[in-house]
Specification:
Elements lengths: L1 H33 L4 H10 L1 H5 L2 H17 L1 E4 L7 H13 L14 E5 L3 E10 L2 E9 L1 E4 L3 E5 H9 L7 H11 L17 H20 L14 H14 L1 H7 L1 H11 L9
Parallel strand pairs: 1-2, 2-6
Antiparallel strand pairs: 3-4, 5-6
Helix pairs in contact: 2-5, 4-5, 5-6, 5-7, 7-9, 9-10, 10-11
Length: 275
């Protein structure tokens, strides 16, 4: 009986600690939101981020609050001699936080640091060749997302993707879509959905579209989405996210089911932003 009482007490204490930590975090975020969004930051976004300029004012206001929280909670580290500036921090935070709009802001809970190189960097790619053997090949990279708490980005690729918001190429949207996908511990192209009943439809529609993309790539046919999305389901979700934000009209016209599924997930309709 004593053991049971002690166990219950531990559970109650742990629950109380979690509650107070969440309360403290919420209170701190409320204080951060009260801080003004700097005019210099808005000038950076107007200059650098085409998607930001297209957004309606109500979403911009919401985005400003998410950016303030992101900048308060995440660490930016310059790599390869790059000095981190407000331009770098605010541009990256803006595009990352676009993926959080109109939803409860969990602010990428697994993410600790954003590592930024001045230009594409070299990383090792591993290819399975059978029998437990792998080949290692150095490759140039514009970005990557790690489940261990980091996103790595190349600043020149970030800026190019932000300025041109209609080419379907955006490394920040891509890598932070991976962060959403990885929140449950798996990189499988299935992020956490608000409604559990949606998983079946998600698997049906994204699975079908993924296989269609693979087939078109294998037969060298023209595709709306970048061919890299045919690599695996995780990359398909990341590339589909880029396309949803940057080529919404084309996706809605050519792949309406996929557009509607992503619209339901992100709670946004980028087609409505186009004037």
């Amino acid at each position: 009986m004593l053991i049971i009482i002690i166990s219950i007490s531990i559970i109650i204490l742990a629950s109380a600690l979690i509650y107070f930590k969440q309360k403290l975090k919420a209170n701190h975020r409320n204080k951060i939101i009260q801080n003004p969004f700097l005019d210099s930051w808005e000038k950076i976004l107007d200059k650098n981020v085409q998607l930001y300029r297209m957004m309606p004012d109500d979403l911009k206001k919401q985005l400003h609050n998410d950016i303030k929280i992101f900048l308060d909670e995440k660490t930016f580290e310059g790599c390869g001699g790059l000095e981190i500036t407000d331009e770098i921090r605010v541009t990256i935070a803006c595009e990352a936080c676009m993926l959080l709009l109109n939803r409860k802001n969990t602010d990428f809970p697994n993410l600790n640091s954003v590592l930024v190189y001045p230009r594409p960097y070299v990383g090792n790619s591993y290819s399975h060749v059978g029998g437990g053997q792998y080949t290692v090949k150095p490759t140039a990279r514009a970005g990557e997302s790690w489940t261990g708490g980091d996103v790595v980005l190349a600043w020149d690729c970030v800026k190019h993707g932000a300025i041109n918001g209609e080419d379907g190429q955006n490394v920040v949207l891509h890598e932070f879509a991976h962060q959403l996908d990885q929140e449950d511990g798996y990189a499988d192209g299935v992020p956490i959905l608000q409604d559990k009943s949606r998983y079946g439809k998600w698997a049906e529609i994204l699975g079908k579209e993924y296989n269609l993309l693979r087939d078109r790539v294998e037969h060298n046919k023209k595709t709306l989405m970048d061919a890299y999305g045919a690599t695996n389901p995780a990359e398909f979700f990341a590339v589909a996210t880029e396309t949803f934000f940057e080529k919404p009209s084309q996706m809605k016209r050519k792949e309406p089911e996929l557009y509607e599924e992503l619209k339901d997930y992100y709670k946004l309709d980028p087609v409505a932003w186009i004037k």
